[in-house]
Write a structure and sequence with these properties.
- The structure holds two protein chains of two kinds.
- By secondary structure, chain A is an alpha+beta fold.
- Chain A folds into three domains: 120 residues, no CATH class; 67 residues; 119 residues, Histidine kinase-like ATPase, C-terminal domain (Heat Shock Protein 90, 2-Layer Sandwich), CATH 3.30.565.
- Helices cover 68% and strands 10% of the residues of chain A.
- In chain A, the strands form two sheets. Chain A has a five-stranded mixed sheet with strand order 3-4-5-7-6. Chain A has a two-stranded antiparallel ribbon with strand order 1-2.
- In chain B, α2 packs parallel to α3, α6 runs antiparallel to α7 and α8 crosses α9.
- In chain B, 49% of the residues lie in helices and 14% in strands.
- The interface between A and B is medium-sized, with 34 and 30 residues.
């Protein structure tokens, strides 16, 4: 028995001696070199894949007229960071090179050349000996028949080419699409649903405010009226004192309720806009507030609401933690954005993160509007809360 | 003061009945008690009352129907005094209310004040008498604002305080009580305010002073 010709036969012929033969070493070397050869190939393919993917998508426009999903540069970058290597694109590159390219070549050759040659049969048969797919075409009537057949084939070819293109396009879509367009669609959808959520919260706040106004607030006012009338009828003495006490308590409850309602859905903001509403907040602040708001017109509702609650929350925090002597609220428009800052001269060390800070919730709300909320608060102060939002 | 003829607008039936009770008990005649601004305007046109008492927030939009109705009443019937009540008061609404002054009195009070029946009725009388009465809560907000410039800049803090109390519709006696000074001292402050604001003695200087104050 001579030496086995390959690793597989070697293994099968003498499974035990195999271990001591040179075949395992050769196999190892083979696999290792495959890796060595494979790595540069892979790198080149990965680099080319992205360019290739973009090119392919553009080519798709020929058969699939679609509105391109509009992505901002930032969204595009974000999408890219999250999916650093596009495996579907790599796969598609291989597929196109190995299967689709030869297939397309053959298909086009057959579906275009044959009908064209047949259509031109009367002319071709005159000048030369003519044969198509084994059919020897004579000049004269037979040539004209060939033209007719060519016409039919041209029609069939048109369908066939389209079908092939559609099938390939579908395949390309399947492999290339998920990456950016669908991701972008998802991002857009999420953003929309988040804005919807903010709107829903706003609607809900409005409903709650309305319920409080129409319900408990009116009953409390009616109660103060009744107690007020009772005060006129009850004789001086412990009875009157009790009624007056009750009256005071009802009024305190009403005052509390007004504060609550202001925190839910501030009427001044709705009726008179941000400047008036912030002045009202400033008037109620225990720390003196300077207000400088430069707006020629009302802001869009959601931005106005967010700005109001940012000021409200910031002023509450200042009063509670900052130990500040004065606060400044400034707001202005700058290049298509609305900017608002709340600065205090307190002890600093404030943060927008973590549970329990209303600013964290507001940051989420602003994010949904495409805006930002930043808190700069070095230990020792000063603290600046800065909101920016496109309008 | 003899009984006033009053048209009342308040959309909450509970409060409407309570108000009617208080007003009638005081000897006023409520010629109509309605639930929205449209009916208010219709009845004011028909009855020409001395005084209109209206809520701000009423159907259909539940925003500022009462304010808009007040402005129309002021434009069409300048002699009718108007008392605006609200579940919630704010300084921001004052300029709107004062936009069309010049005729009868104007009042702007928190609904809670109605419970202090005697004071509320006294404030109604003042408004019917052509004065301007503004809720202490609003006055507090106004006081909080810095207003160094304008005619008010020349007033001392004490004079400004007296003016703020005048805006609440208080008499000199009541202001003296609040500030714990003699009524003569209040009269002196009031005289100084009139002089500093350079008010025409022929006009109702008390009203004009308050308006100057409210307009800032």
């Amino acid at each position: 028995m001579g030496a086995p010709p390959d690793a597989w036969s070697a293994l099968r012929a003498r499974p035990r001696q195999f271990l001591l033969s040179r075949w395992p070493w050769r196999s190892l070397a083979y696999l290792a070199t495959a890796l060595l050869v494979g790595i540069p190939v892979l790198v080149v393919v990965l680099c080319v894949a992205r360019v290739f993917g973009a090119l392919e998508r553009r080519r798709l426009g020929l058969v699939q007229v679609r509105t391109r999903t509009r992505l901002t540069r930032r969204e595009r970058r974000r999408a890219r960071r999250r999916l650093p290597v596009s495996w579907p694109e790599v796969g598609y590159a291989f597929l196109l090179a190995v299967v689709l390219w030869p297939l397309d070549f053959l298909l086009l050759l057959f579906l275009v050349t044959v009908p064209v040659v047949m259509l031109l049969a009367p002319a071709l048969a005159e000048t030369d000996d003519m044969a198509v797919l084994g059919w020897h075409v004579d000049p004269g009537p037979e040539a004209w028949l060939a033209t007719l057949v060519g016409l039919g084939l041209a029609v069939v070819a048109a369908y066939a080419v389209t079908l092939a293109a559609v099938a390939q396009a579908a395949l390309a879509r399947l492999l290339l699409d998920p990456r950016e367009a669908e991701l972008a669609a998802t991002v857009a959808e999420l953003r929309r649903s988040r804005v919807d959520l903010v709107d829903a919260f706003e609607t809900e706040r409005r409903r709650i405010e309305r319920d409080l106004h129409d319900g408990v607030q009116q009953r409390l006012v009616a109660l103060t009226m009744t107690l007020g009338r009772a005060e006129l009828d009850v004789a001086e003495g412990p009875g009157l004192a009790a009624v007056q006490d009750a009256h005071r308590m009802a009024e305190d409850a009403l005052a509390d309720l007004r504060t609550t309602i202001r925190g839910i859905h501030p009427q001044v903001l709705v009726d008179h806009g941000l400047t008036a509403a912030v002045h009202e907040l400033a008037d109620r602040s225990s720390v003196p507030v300077t207000v400088d708001i430069r707006l020629d017109e009302r802001l869009p509702g959601p931005v106005e609401q967010a700005a109001y609650f940012v000021v409200s929350e910031a002023l509450t925090n200042v009063a509670r933690h900052a130990g500040a002597r004065r606060v400044g609220v400034h707001a202005w428009r700058h290049e298509g954005a609305f900017v608002l800052t709340v600065e205090d001269d307190g002890i600093g060390g404030a943060t927008a993160e973590g549970p329990g800070t209303g600013l964290a919730g507001l940051a989420v709300r602003l994010d949904a509007l495409g805006g930002t909320l930043r808190v700069t608060s070095p230990s020792g102060g000063p603290t600046e809360v800065r909101m920016e939002c496109p309008v | 003061m003899p009984g006033l003829r009053i048209v009342l607008a308040e959309d909450a039936a509970l409060l409407r009945e309570g108000l009617v009770g208080i007003l009638e008990r005081a000897g006023h005649e409520v010629v109509a008690a309605v639930g929205d601004a449209e009916a208010l305007l219709a009845f004011v046109g028909r009855h020409e009352p001395d005084l209109v008492v209206t809520d701000i927030r009423m159907p259909p939009t539940h925003t500022d129907e009462g304010l808009r109705a007040a402005a129309r009443i002021r434009a069409e019937h300048p002699a009718i005094a108007i008392m605006v009540l609200s579940a919630y008061v704010a300084e921001a609404y004052v300029p709107e209310l004062l936009e069309a002054t010049g005729g009868g009195g104007i009042g702007y009070l928190l609904k809670d004040r109605v419970g202090h029946v005697r004071e509320f009725l006294a404030q109604l009388d003042r408004v019917a008498g052509g004065e301007t009465v503004v809720d202490p809560e609003v006055v507090r907000q106004l006081l909080g604002r810095r207003r160094g410039d304008g005619p008010l800049g020349s007033l001392t803090d004490r004079e400004r305080e007296v003016l703020a109390l005048m805006a609440e519709g208080r008499t000199n006696g009541s202001i003296a009580e609040v500030l714990v000074v003699s009524e003569a001292a209040v009269r002196k402050h009031v005289g100084n305010i009139f002089a500093k604001l350079d008010l025409d003695p022929a006009s109702d200087r008390r009203v004009t002073a308050v308006l100057t104050y409210l307009r800032g």
